[in-house]
């Protein structure tokens, strides 16, 4: 019979996401989550210690005056199975990490517990996109494209307008859209390409260069501006380089002051657990919400497929003409 801690662990197995703070390594986030989960699992009431039957000498018998030995039957605990001897029931659990964030970045970080690690490969083979918010600033260029790097150039930015910025962003997005089609390995004139595009699954097969599927400015107040990016196969360093190249296209310079991931596939920033909620009960609820949303999505997909089949059948459901008339 499974113990209470084992039952809790089975409910923990799955995917969930947390908010990674800026300036913290992803390994430290994973280790803290693992430590909190172990603490929660081992805090569960342990299973009662098994008993065994032993023959014990009667403490009231005087062995010096009586030649016979008096024994009594007693049920005593098996000390080798006692929690104080065996130690905590869970010594370690496997917590996996999805698409990682570097130290300077923050936002959604997807984690997996136990059997949830097997889902990572299936999840990322569907070519899910990720959303980022980039905080940028015109006027300087650094060796690592961030505001904390060594400044290598300074420039003016008074000539930059929102229209000019939007034109450059549209040009960059158009170039990446062509790369998306090039690496998709699908005939664009086929039915397969159409169905993949409708479902939002048209993307590169396997590894490819970083691809930006969406790029727009959501805030413009020079020298500061904010970009929203949807991308595939990216790194945070590459996103900072995009900001640098945007400044160069505008005949100026720009650095990235902050990278924040707001979505990773099905996981959004609203669902991510903050530092104070990296506990076993909160993670259990997050895992159950993930399975519920996945089940609802699958149900909607089956219903939509059924609607399309019904519609197609309805178009052909005509009575044959009566040739005897």
TrEMBL record:
Taxonomic superkingdom: Eukaryota
PANTHER family: PSEUDOURIDINE SYNTHASE-RELATED, PSEUDOURIDYLATE SYNTHASE TRUB2, MITOCHONDRIAL
Start and end residues of each Pseudouridine synthase II N-terminal domain: 93-236
Gene Ontology terms describing biological process: pseudouridine synthesis; RNA processing
Any Pfam family the entry gives: TruB_N
Protein name (Swiss-Prot/TrEMBL): Mitochondrial mRNA pseudouridine synthase TRUB2
Gene Ontology molecular function: any one: pseudouridine synthase activity
InterPro entries in UniProt: PsdUridine_synth_N (IPR002501), Trub2 (IPR039048)
Region (Disordered): 294-325
